[in-house]
Amino acid sequence: MATTIIGPTAATGAVTATPPLVYVRRTWSDSWTWEPSLRFRRGSCHTTGADLDMAELESRYGYDKAPHEAGFSTKLPADWTRAWVRVDVVAPGGAQTIFLGRISGEGRHVHGQDNGPSGRQTWAAYGPLQILRKIHVGRSFWLVDGEEKELGWIPSLNRRDELDTIRGNRSAEKSGDSYLFGSTAVWTHRDFLEYLLDRFVDESDAGGPAWTIGGQDELLDELTETVEMATTQTAAEIIRRLIPPRLGLDYKITPTADGFEITVFSLLSQETSFQGATLPRNPRSVRVDSGSAKENIRTHLATSDAQAFGKVRILGRRLVCAFSLYGPAVLANGNVSPHPLAGDLVKRWTNTLQSDYENGSGSSDPTVLDQDRTAERFRTVFSAFGAPNDWDLYDGKCAPKLDQAGQRQDGPADFQTRVRSTLSWLPLRQGWDYTVDPPIDGNPEGVEADLRPPAAWLTLRNPAGEADPWSEAYQPAEALGVGVHALRDDWGVLLTANPRHLLALGHFLEPSAVAPLVDYETTVITIAVETDQRLCLEVEIPDAAPSDGVYETVVPDAHYWFLAPDTILDVDPADPTALVSAGPLELRNDADRLALVMAGVLARYYATRARAEIHVKGLLPWTGLLGQILETVEEAGAAHQIQAPITSIEWSMPQGPNDSPLTVIRTGFAQ
To answer: ∠399-401-406 over CA atoms, to 5°?
Structure first.
């Protein structure tokens, strides 16, 4: 049940007319001292997604008399720069703190006086978020063989390799109060927040403020997202990424008895789920009965569709599909009939260029001719192979189709064949068995296998005799000294042999010092490409129109990898005339990562937002309301649904003789 903070059942009580009490201490370990010369003028506290806590204080110097003094005296200008300051208000339950921070600057209004200098000093103090903004982090602590090491660079939390596969880099054991870098365990966001506070922020060992974690901090135990690190960044920037508003989270900084607490809270008034990914609700809530509260001066309510959209789409990377292409003379496992897919690998050089290659300079010396044939312009002759221009992607089987939930469906997705590029890697790891579903890792425990490069298999001349000139025994290209390279502007490979016509058995009859060995028409290759679709989750309001808007956000490291039917993986070790194939097989689907983001987006961008701004007479010690959900504002029996977190509490002292102290509550969402 929500607590009423304004209204007939509210337990706030009236705040006395006593001005706020200002306390200072030069260092954190000093005792707090009441400083009557400092007067509070205005201030605010915020959730970190909204703004920075601040307070404006004032003091006078010269020949003057303070309200608590018996007579006039001459006061010198004060210097409170870098002092800690605390502002308390006196309520029926006793004095309560509304601001705690550090003075960082002075302004001076000079009056002038016959008997010496006089004027007014103003002091700007900022809350503890300013501390986090001023601490830059560009180094890291490691635990290596039980020994701590401080390094001059910082890796990304749970770094991902060049293909966005997560790599844990947390130590297996804690060193002191936190884990460090140095092994392969996966960081949770709580683990890394503890490390950050312990190693870079907490000053308790040196007599400064201690930093702890609280609130709904258990939510951080489930997050293991990658957090990218630059050469250097502030602690505040890192914590913002550890507690991301896009996943429905924010935090505030709460003063404690010996320092500050990172208080985590959910931004959501209701639990939000999407495809099994759930973002929890904030259990703490309040309501306002503005119509029956005499201390309520003004309540402003607003609803807005400016950030509500008719369609929401969460975008991952383009799909990756691995498949094989077969030359026109490839046989089906040693049979005399061609392979059913034979002919989908064709040459990618012109007859004119081949003729120039064969003729060379016209010399009668084969060695000279072979030297002529090494020219760069011949690099594709007998070497470049790709899919035909009109290739149908094996009737679309290499164009997997996903639904709006990121799951594979029957039939092909739309594709084009004009813009082409081959990846320099396959979505297959060394040492894995992909002939079973799910694939089995055959590597030793703890070994992170590399991804395979594009592959090719060739057949050799049978040395037994001319009566049987062919052998269907396959060899990996690299076993024959032939390199395999992805084509940047085609779906295919460049095979690098020396000389190039080594691959032109039956196609090259010119003089040469080296005889052809392989017929390129028997080549089989396995490559991977990005398809024309991407991993995407989509939710749409029924009957949504284009004018309702489309909200799209990108998760750049979310992938979908697919192994097409009849993809060649290797030579059969029991029968070298046969090739091992696999597929169709889903190798990777990061739709669950998109679902978590979708749950956060739906909670924030799929419905009309409501905001409230409530002005209340008096200085009310309501900093504890920050981060709580303001459920409703009641007006003469009508309940206005707000369902938004309280993000700001502001206070101001009277500016004129008829003014009253004022407290303002604002709701909103972290940006």
So the answer is: 135
Tell me the percentage of the chain whose pLDDT exceeds 90. Answer: 61
- The pLDDT value given to residue 527: 98
SS3 assignment, position 413: coil
| Lowest mean pLDDT segment, chosen from 88-92, 178-182, 470-474, 579-583 | 470-474
3 state DSSP class of 122: strand
pLDDT confidence bin for 557, thresholds 50/70/90: confident
Position of tokens 């409530």?
614
Q: Say how many Å lie between the first and final Cα of the chain, rounded.
A: 28
Contact 124, 115 (CB under 8 A): no
DSSP symbols for 189-230: HHHHHHHHIIIII--GGGTS-EEEEEESGGGGGG----B---
String of DSSP letters for 334-399:
T-SSBPTTBTS-EE-S-HHHHHHHHHTT--S-HHHHHHHTT-GGGTTTTTEEE--TT--HHHHTTS
Alpha-carbon 651 to chain mean position: 36
In the chain, what are the helix, strand and coil shares in percent, each to the nearest 5?
15, 40, 45
Q: Where are the beta strands (DSSP E) in 232-310?
A: 233-234, 249-255, 259-266, 272-274, 277-279, 285-289, 296-304
Helix (H) or strand (E) holding 601: helix 591-605
DSSP 551-590: EEEE-TT--EEEE-TTEEEEE-TT-TTSEEEE-SEEEEE-
Contact 320, 560 (CB under 8 A): yes
- The average confidence (pLDDT) of the chain is 89
Structure tokens at 370: 């072979």
- Measured CA to CA, the distance from residue 646 to residue 669 in angstroms comes to 8
> In whole angstroms, what is the distance from residue 81 CA to residue 131 CA?
15
Q: Which residue has the tokens 């306390």?
A: 23
Checking 434-443 for CB contacts under 8 A at 24+ apart, the result is 434/563, 434/569, 434/582, 434/583, 434/585, 434/587, 435/569, 435/580, 435/582, 437/585, 439/585, 439/587
Amino acid at 604: R
Three-point CA angle 7, 12, 15, nearest 5°: 115
Q: Are 346 and 389 in contact (CB under 8 A)?
A: no
pTM metric for this prediction: 0.79
Q: In the block, which residue shows the tokens 């060899």? A: 475
Q: How far is CA 522 from CA 329, 358, 462, 583, 671, in A?
A: 5, 21, 14, 22, 59
- DSSP string of 323-352? EEEE-TT-BSTT-SSBPTTBTS-EE-S-HH
Q: Can you state the angle between helices 235-242 and 189-196, rounded to 10 degrees?
A: 160
pLDDT tens-digit series, residues 248-300:
899 999 999 999 999 999 988 888 888 888 889 999 998 887 665 567 788 88
Q: What are the residues whose beta carbons fall under 8 Å from the beta carbon of 285, sequence distance 6 or more?
A: 2, 3, 269, 628, 629, 630, 631
- Return d(Cα 170, Cα 186) in angstroms, integer: 6
CB atoms within 10 A of CB 70: 7
Beta-sheet strands, E only, within 397-512:
400-402, 408-412, 432-433, 440-441, 455-461, 470-476, 483-486, 492-496
| Helix and strand numbers, DSSP H then E, in the chain | 7, 43
Residue 8 dihedral angles phi and psi, to the nearest 5°: -65, -25
Domain boundaries, the chain: 1-113+260-307+609-671, 326-528
Beta-carbon count within 10 A of 266 CB: 25
* Beta strand spans in 145-205 (E): 147-151, 170-175, 178-181
Give residue 394's identity as a one-letter amino acid code. Answer: Y
Nearest Cα residue to 290 out of 302, 303, 299: 299
Rounded Cα distance between 330 and 82, Å, is: 80
